[in-house]
TrEMBL record:
CDD domains: ChoK-like. It comes from the Bacteria. It holds the Pfam family APH. SUPFAM superfamilies: Protein kinase-like (PK-like). Residues 22-227 form the Aminoglycoside phosphotransferase domain. This is Phosphotransferase.
Amino acid sequence: MTDAVDRIRALPIWRSRVEPCPLGGGITNTNFVVEDEGAKYVVRLGDDIPRHNVMRFNELTAARAAEAAGISPRLRHAEPGLLVIDFIEGRTYGEADVRANLPRVVELVRRAHVEVTRQLRGPALAFWTFHVLRSYLHALRDGDHRLKHDLPAYAALAARVEALVGPSEIVFGHNDLLPANFIDDGARLWLIDWDYAGFNTPLFDLGGLASNNGFDAAQREEMLGLYYGRAPDDQLILKLQAMLVASLLREALWSMVSEMHSTIDFDYRAYTAENLARLAAAAAELDAMDAR
């Protein structure tokens, strides 16, 4: 922590001596708030994490495109392993806030898929859901994870979901739509934290939005209607449920891999258990829908 604070203090962009304050909540990066002559900034520190498909050149590319699209705050400084962005004064959303503001949230996600994709410059990664799942499963087998005996069942579930989703359109997605990545400044919504950004099907973001924020069936259908501008048919509803399952499986496997490798102070085992419970419920709902 001392090395991080010293590095931030030494950045050439400050106009006064700054005192970085830790910003809690991050489970991929270490974050600080810095105040400099009355303005506030967030400093994000994090190295490449290839096992999670997190490469900082890609995050920087995405952050620049999201700023240009008016989706994310202004980027003030970037260097290897470090970004400085404007601090947004506002309310960080919880799950209930996302559900209560569904039209605004979906419009922001839809606009991000269109406008951030258009604003991209230079190399950018793919974040293909099913490649990510297979990669995690290999890593967990190779690492002799404590739940290794469950991995064949998760692999079979991933294959089944991939078949149900079928061919998909591609956008540049955010791929990590946790409620805390939405900030409401009272006039508009912002979408932050592009660590996992990459080309993917929009259904992954929609499935993640639903799974991370506790949507019921009616809210999932409303979300699809808002995003696509039409009432969803049964096939689209089934594909969304399949991708919702994929989102929860990805989150659970991410946490299992993080159990073995992350140095961030966070209870990954509890997070694994929470996501596996959500996954079981979502998979049961998928079974019931697919049997109709």
